[in-house]
Amino acid sequence: MRRTPPSLAEPDVARDPYPLYRTLRDAHPLHHDERYGAWLVSRYADVRAALADPRLVAPPPGRTFSHLEQGTHAAHRALVSPQLQGRALAAVRAGVERAAFVLARRLVRREEADLVEEFCRWLPSAAAVAALGLPHEETARVAAWSRTDLTHLGAVPAAVADALRPHVARRRVRPGDDLLSVLCTARADGRPLPDEAVVGIAATLLGAAGEATGRALAAHLANLLDHPAQLALVRARPALSDAAWAESLRRDPAVHLVLRRALAPVPAGGGTIPAGATVACLLGSAGRDAARFPDPDRYDLFRTDPGRLAFGAGRHRCLGVPFTRMIAGAGLSALLTTLPALAWAPGFRPAPAGLLTRAPTALVVRVR
Ligand code: HEM
User: Fold this and answer.
1) DSSP single-letter state for residue 1
2) 47: Cβ below 6 Å to ligand 1?
3) Which atom of ligand 1 is nearest the CA belonging to 204?
4) Does 357 fall in a domain?
5) Rounded to the nearest whole angstrom, what is the distance from the C-alpha of residue 17 to the centroid of ligand 1?
């Protein structure tokens, strides 16, 4: 008889979910986790199909970007997406690179530093503040909110909404060329976006950068510091930086789990998810599926196809993909250029934590 796998709610699983993921993929590709209250989907192909299935929707309750009614959701995506790529992104690149160098140079004279505290928590927040056109002094507040209640796709904390409203009011009167101004002057269905919608989108971008991107950057740096030969290759050939980032997102994604609610019975993993059920799409498991990736636990920046599920799939696929790649590239380049001896501090081992989002909580490095 097959043993029931442990629950996602077990503290041991949060410490290291990979053994559970393997059990699920091998023997329970569709599993009802009673304690967690969700059906678990764990294989790459099933996770991808579930994310793209229109019968599986963002679960209530919620008033985030992902919960917008279908027409409004498509309109807001069409508005925001071009502002996070191409020319709009090129316009903030220099500022992000500068911020990365300023942060890295602060470490130069130190023996040791914690890159989570002193780099990863700051750079993505600085990048989002720059993209929105907020004063750069706001970076400290955004970084502080991202430690507590401002998350990638969570509710907008009242303090964040209160802080953003005066900036919105100013852009309504005197728009500039930043993303907040684009949102303030845009029309969706022929009407300007209400203040609450502008504040909601801006807060989503700040949280996505500060929380998810900060964590992804920490997991990325941990992978490279754990593989000094591959780190040396990226140092010698900076063009490998994007491949290294993609491989980190496959092996150790920042978002491990995306929830959905089934509007109808949906076949998955050889079974059927019942209508009304909650579904957990396990991105962290999908990236380690041996049926999709040879030797999936190995970090290999030369992997030709690291997959693309770390940012989801289907109509809710992340809008921040090019933006995060730019932040990761600027961050790594600044650290490698400024700190030639970067390596783990003696005896230090990173300890990833979290299940919804997951990353090392500290990265203590030797700087010189
Ligand atoms: C490496 C960092 C990031 C990761 C791993 C990540 C991951 C994800 C994932 C998995 C989803 C899909 C959620 C779902 O299907 O329900 C998502 C959605 C989203 N992401 Fe990200 N994200 C990151 C950074 C960002 C950034 C920097 C931004 C904006 C600047 C952003 C904006 C969004 C938005 C707006 C959505 C909702 C899309 C929709 O519902 O249509 N993300 N992200």
Assistant:
1) -
2) no
3) 35
4) yes
5) 22
Answer whether 213 contacts ligand 1 (Cβ < 6 A): yes
3-class state of residue 271 by DSSP: strand
Beta bridge pairs of residue 352: 360
Domain presence at residue 347: yes
Predicted pLDDT at 60: 78
Cβ–ligand 1 contact at 129 (below 6 Å): no
- In one-letter notation, the amino acid at residue 196 is E
- pLDDT tens digit string along 73-115? 998 899 899 989 998 899 999 999 999 999 999 999 999 999 9
CB of 284 closer than 8 Å to CB of 173:
no
Give me the chain's average pLDDT, please.
95
Angle among Cα 17, 207, 195 to the nearest 5 degrees reads: 145
Position 99 in a domain = yes
For the domain that residue 236 is a member of, what is the CATH number? 1.10.630.10
254 lines ligand 1 (CB under 6 A): yes
* Nearby residues of 283 by Cβ (< 8 Å), 6 or more positions away: 47, 253, 255, 256, 257, 258, 309, 310, 312
pTM of the prediction? Answer: 0.96
Domain hosting 131: range is: 11-366
Write down how long the chain is. Answer: 368
Residue 315 in 3-state DSSP? Answer: helix
CA count, 13 A, side-chain hemisphere, 187: 3
